[in-house]
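Re: the 279-residue chain
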Amino acid sequence: MYTATLMPSGEKIVINEKKSLLENLKDNGHYIKSSCGGHATCTDCAVKVVTGEDNVNPPEFNELQLMGNVFHITKERLSCQTFVTGDVTIDISAHDKKEDERRLKNKTAAFASAKKSGPRVRKREEVDEILKERQERYEQKKVDGQDWHKHWEKEKDQPVKRFGGGKRPKEFRTDHIDHERDAKLRAEATERRLKREQFEKISPRSFNDSLKDKTNKDKFPVKKSEQQEDANFCSRPAAKRDREETAPRVIEKAAAPVASEERPLRENPERKSFRKKKD
């Protein structure tokens, strides 16, 4: 159990650490305003932590959404989300039951009076006076020429009124359209589309058949040396073929015999041999 000192009265209460600060204050008979009932959807139950900031739990996500991460500046916490872990001093001077009741009464007074009075009923004299004023305004508009009724039948000598309308719609121009040419082009396009679709339905030919059509073997026959080279290439291992394909090709020239100008070595009987003689 921990102790909480309430300001400005200076009263000390015992705090149950398993309950929130709002529940502890209500259990001890103190008024704390709360609109959501302790679900962290309003900021009415905010209190100020005077001392013992380290003896309360850190703000959770729901509280940070409403209050922001400014506890180190304002020292304000939601009492419904605050759990005490040590001795603290709490300022609850912002929670006054009489002041809240007065504000609520002033807020609902206008609705209550409107409900009791009911709908407003005008007398006959008031209705006649309103109709008379409207008729005078209508007559004044007619004198000024601001009359919309059958304005198209009036003489053209009168000034044009800025009513934003009064013009009859014009017909669409269609004399430049050649319907016969469009029909002919449309028929040709349809015929081309049908031919293209019919050609696409034909099954594709195999690769060998296409290759036979592209290759003219009569005019350009394959040499026997090339056939033998291809056969040898296919019979070699795959790894060796890959190395030969990727390796750069170097054309080697035959080395011509070079005549040596040096004199031939003669036998020297006095030359000693370091080789071991066989027994």
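The mean pLDDT is 76.
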